[in-house]
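Review form for a predicted model. The reviewer records the input and the model, then writes brief findings.
Reviewer: anonymous (R2)
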Amino acid sequence: MTTEAAERTWFGQPRGLTVLFLTNMWEQFSYYGMRALLVYYMTKQLLIGQGTSSFIYGAYTSCAYFTPIIGGVIADRFLGKRRAIIIGASTMAAGHFMMAFDGLFYVALATIALGNGLFLPSLPSQVGDLYRSDDPRRGWAYNVYYVGINIGGFLAPLICGTVGELYGWHYGFGIAGFGMLAGLAIYLSGQRYLPQEREVVPATRLVGGSRFSRQTVLLLLGIGIAVTIFRAAYEQVGNTVALWADSGVDRGALGHVIPMTWFQSLNPLFVMFMTPPLLAYWRRRADAGHDQPAARRMALGATIVGLAYLLLAGVAWADLEQRAPWAWLALFFAIFTFGELFILPTGLGLFARLAPPDLGATTVAAWFLFTFTGSLSAGLVGALWSKLGHPVFFVLLAALAGIAALLLLSLNGRTWLTETAREKSLNLD
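Model under review:
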């Protein structure tokens, strides 16, 4: 059963969205805080080689998005979304605190990934439960929710990254753990604003009651393959691009050196500034009857990200003998983020809105399945950083984003990709 809160406190959305927004913001603070430190911690503290560190980074991020596949099923069939979120958040907090000890490094990564499996698919699937299926705000809600991800992502490198660089990596990881606890506290205190949870449906009933059409499965599969290729390039911002910020960028400004982790805050900062005007623009186009099909919007986003990597390739080629000015890296993040806003929130919202009522967490978990495969691919691609010249490597990333755009465009032009036709053909409640 879906519900619409009477009072609205965020972009005209139900109050429950604010609760989920803030819960997600602090969870992402903990995730991005740890991620901002991870590759530096491995190469500088644990003295793991670059190629191996990039592979571990990719393996961890991929596992963090693989466990939701199982966690989503567990939430739908056994625990329910609320209990899955509480257990998952508590487990992740424990994993972040374990990161404060070198000997528990791999155990900590596994613990965070396991907790994430329960938390990650359950929280965004609750966003859809706040609305009736015919509520036009439902689609925009995921862009608002995505801002919460990026507020946490903006604060994390500034706080966790700075503390980790100046006072010790372990202190930075500890602050990430407290961020996770803050998110859990907000979620528990805001229960009265969230929709009543559906009864957990046994597996035998789910098999017979699911309403996935063949067209829906093909659509999700096609988008998933494109997102897998796209993420092989996208995820490099926390991996090889972070390494380039350390070794290939002149970070001097006003007589000081900008901490390398601060550049990780540029992406979420631009998300916060770009999202409101972009949402307003899309809303005006929709009101005028010119709404853009989901696949075309996502293809445009992948293309823009590819152009951002071409910019880095040109900068790296022009400054082979010296470090590049940091302003070029800032411009890269601005273009990169603009493209990201076209593809990732659109994809997540599409998966959530296509979910049958009894398979909300499971369907969102399918989105994270493709995030998993993309992150694993990113780890393998990142291992080429030391083998290819930096300009060639960035051209490779641009090519991957371009391939993803072409695949998404091949899905465009079908009536079942439009919002109205999709909801009518699936007869969603």
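Findings: DSSP finds 15 helices and six strands in the chain.
Further findings: The chain has one domain: 14-191+209-424.
Recommendation: see findings above.
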